């Protein structure tokens, strides 16, 4: 996607002549503008829309929605996409009589970013030219290596997220999937973090089937959690209101929410968090047809001037009717992981293979071939330790990640762990069915062996330009191979052995890398088209300049 440039004839670009020296904002950092309403509202969250138009000296114009932040305060967050711009902005409010919100204006300059955060240095995220991968605005490849701490927003403390983010960054993860609020209408417990059975409430009326009565302190605290993740170069994947199992399986709101409320909330998340690196996962664990999903995709296409990636995450019953769905008309199946496949606003599709401990590679293999092309990943493999600590343990996770990549999930890999995704406070905290659980706290689950193997995918491929790499088993006599022919080849051989690759240049170098340690075993110059692994253990073959 490209930036959304608009024509705004009422905004005359006078810029900085005769004015005080304007504030300076580094490229891709967030400039926060505060507006104060002069009128009172019964429910500011639902009653007033505010946005701002930003124009630089080149005539480039970007639109950013504003968000209510409590009392009479609205905020606009904007990241300049250039490093030498002269910007001015003007606000618009749906209530034009409120002069504190309507027709406010200001100016600032953009300048180069001099920090060392790789996310900020390379710019916000977008899709690659071939739609297979995610890249930064700089063009740098971003292979998703995601974890699923779904319950962080409503259960975790800042201190806990600091521990989590340090661990995941060190291991090689660069994204975190989150339910932005606790979605189960029938969930009960104390209104608090780090309390057994407790969770913070984002909306007072969620248990009644609505999201209109916002608790602003919830989102102010969530800001700090997002800050910690981004400071550790972990991109938030924002899921507005879950549609599948949810947190405890206690009647999720996502399948019943009013479409207007879902779109309003998704737009609020865009306003609050969309000036920094983000993914928008607008459907969670279902079929992509729930209220407000299509409308939210269309809204994001209109309002996200940075065009950050938008996608869907499906339930496992892609081409069959699951037992748990047969008597529940809200649990649709037979979606084939391709709902809205032809929509312009849709950037990626994520399969789910369920939690039975089976390696299922056919789903992403089929999705890779769907047209028009969308980026593909298995967004929910069996979480480590599901089914009372029995499923998906240890190296199972490494094999799953590398093999899903080979089968066409070239957007990246996703990991999960029982107890971590619920953010269990203690090993014996109750409230989950046995198939979802294991006797560990979130902190204990964070140290499970499998996370190390999945994180190593990110470490091994961190500096490899994976942009629009293709599934090319045809070049290797049907063996697993990703390639950008003539410049980059990547294979994963679960039991070692040989691989022969057609038409490979002798100008390249090969590396055999141990996927269990990240250490190279053999490095050399290509001098033929057959490559033999060091032994019969799992090996990654990387061939490049």
Word description of this protein:
The protein is of the alpha/beta class and 545 residues long. The chain is 20% helix and 24% strand. The chain has helices at residues 44-47, 118-122, 152-155, 158-171, 216-231, 259-273, 293-303, 362-369, 386-389, 395-406, 442-445, 449-460, and strands at 23-26, 31-36, 50-56, 61-68, 73-78, 86-93, 105-111, 125-127, 134-136, 141-142, 144-147, 175-179, 235-239, 279-286, 310-314, 348-352, 375-380, 412-414, 470-471, 482-484, 488-493, 498-500, 509-513, 520-525, 530-532, 539-544. The strands form five sheets. Strands 17-16-15-14-13-12-11-18 form an eight-stranded parallel sheet. The chain has a seven-stranded mixed sheet with strand order 1-7-6-3-4-5-2, covered by helices on one side. A six-stranded antiparallel sheet has the order 19-20-21-26-23-24. Helix 4 packs parallel to helix 5 (216-231). The radius of gyration is 24 Å and the shape is globular. Mean pLDDT is 95; it is low at 4-18.
